[in-house]
Amino acid sequence: MIVRILMPLAFVLVSLTPAAAASPQEQRGKTFALNNCAKCHSIDKVSPSPLKIAPPFRTLHKRYPIETIGEALAEGIYTGHPTMPAFQLEPDQIGDLLAYLKTLQ
């Protein structure tokens, strides 16, 4: 009797969880963005950027193919918005950040 009640309840709970949980790489990319980019950029799918001239990450794929962003991250980004600091990422950081950016498309 209890199994008849609990099985449908368990099915409902499982179906309410996100279909595809973020991969470890996507999680690391999100953490990197949160720690290094969120002061100026929106790093989610809905929020405005704290710094109005900093584009939200969810719109970057409309301006540039994500893979070309990876090349810029490897070489060092020295432009962007006027108050953006220059920085250069390590290959693993680039892969992580790109994986996260793709989740925002």
Which series of helices and strands comes N to C?
HHHHH
What count of helical segments does DSSP give?
Answer: 5
Span between termini: 46 Å
* Main sheet characteristics: none
Structural class: mainly alpha
Low confidence ranges? 6-19
Shape: globular
> What is the total number of structural domains?
1
Task: Report what the structure shows.
With 105 residues, the protein is mainly alpha-helical. It has a single domain, classed as Cytochrome Bc1 Complex, Chain D, domain 2 (Orthogonal Bundle). It has five helices and no strands. It has helices spanning 2-16, 24-36, 60-63, 66-75, 91-103.
Sum this structure up briefly:
This protein is mainly α and 105 residues long. It contains five helices and no strands.
